[in-house]
């Protein structure tokens, strides 16, 4: 679960990281009132779960209450990379600071935790990473040892931060590590990590991704955000389906994590012969592939605009293939016309009966294939067409 900036800053503050004083507003009038109470210039910041707000005009300075109201009016409702700003953070403006970058994250490829620190923080960190990798220190952290002051100071020094800020930054890096560990986050990022001329180190921005698997250990429920921008993942979650977005063109539905994972592999493999077609997403309908579950699943998969063909790969077990086939037929009745071809491969319990149900239904968009490789081949070809 990703947090909003203001929520991340709340957690930072709980762990002793300095953040500017601020409050969230949902209307321009509220923003004005907060600014008036602050009696100082403020920054108005769109609260959306995506980066690049500054470049999109979602972070604006306001010298006083009426400017705060105006800027809030401009930002509220703004669309930033598909996320609508329903709220703004009104924060006391910080002046005169250097911008650094600090993050800890799970480095899956190297099976470790990774610290990343840079002396060149701010809005162009992606570019720094791409064009000046030496300005971004990347250091693996042993989870059983963690980050103490000495390691933190080394991190900051390796990143090229000036000598006179090393101690203060190191103290913040240790606290940031505590946020990762104690809140069970898989990512904590501060960009910019600001150092003011009087030596204060503060988090001017914050990003936290909490590990949902550890939710039971925490009282983080208040941080959950029911709206979640109405994304497909949120819609799937509401229907108790496991949906994951990927970058390709083939929608994948299967039952059981193992089958779904191997389906992704065969689709990607077959796709190599068809313009590099790859899975666009996947949805695990689990054991009970009832008609309703299949309808919900197909509806979500077909709502992904990247999907150009769908592969339904089901191995009948306790839920037999004839039930699954009936589910697909009913799902297509509920959905009306499918907007792209659906390739179905059924195997296992009552596979013959299931295939017969589908061929009798003779839906123009449904193609039944008996083998998994054959189905992957056909779906890749259809998605590339
Ligand atoms: P992002 O673009 O989504 O990463 O949003 P940030 O919160 O990082 O803000 C973008 C940029 O706005 C930062 O890199 C800062 O340069 C600037 N900024 C943010 N807060 C303040 C502030 O209090 N004072 C000043 N002068 N600039 C700020
Ligand atoms: Mn930022």
From TrEMBL:
Annotated catalysed reactions: GTP + succinate + CoA = succinyl-CoA + GDP + phosphate; succinate + ATP + CoA = succinyl-CoA + ADP + phosphate
Name the UniProt record assigns to this protein: Succinate--CoA ligase [ADP-forming] subunit beta
ATP-grasp domain mapped to chain residues: 9-224
Keyword Transcription regulation part of the UniProt annotation: no
UniProt keyword annotation of Transport present: no
UniProt remark on cofactor binding: Binds 1 Mg(2+) ion per subunit.
Pathway(s) served: Carbohydrate metabolism; tricarboxylic acid cycle; succinate from succinyl-CoA (ligase route): step 1/1
Subunit structure: Heterotetramer of two alpha and two beta subunits.
Residues annotated as binding ATP: 45, 52-54, 91, 94, 99
Entry EC number(s): 6.2.1.5
GO biological process, one term: succinyl-CoA metabolic process
UniProt-listed PANTHER family: SUCCINATE--COA LIGASE [GDP-FORMING] SUBUNIT BETA, MITOCHONDRIAL, SUCCINYL-COA SYNTHETASE BETA CHAIN
Protein origin, superkingdom: Bacteria
Matching SUPFAM superfamilies: Glutathione synthetase ATP-binding domain-like, Succinyl-CoA synthetase domains
GO CC, one annotated term: cytosol
Cofactor(s) listed: Mg(2+)
GO MF annotations in UniProt: ATP binding; magnesium ion binding; succinate-CoA ligase (ADP-forming) activity
Gene3D superfamilies: ATP-grasp fold, A domain, ATP-grasp fold, B domain, Succinyl-CoA synthetase domains
Lineage: Bacteria, Bacillati, Actinomycetota, Actinomycetes, Streptosporangiales
Enzyme superclass (EC): ligase
Binding, substrate: 255, 317-319
Binding site for Mg(2+): 191, 205
Family of the protein in this entry: Belongs to the succinate/malate CoA ligase beta subunit family.
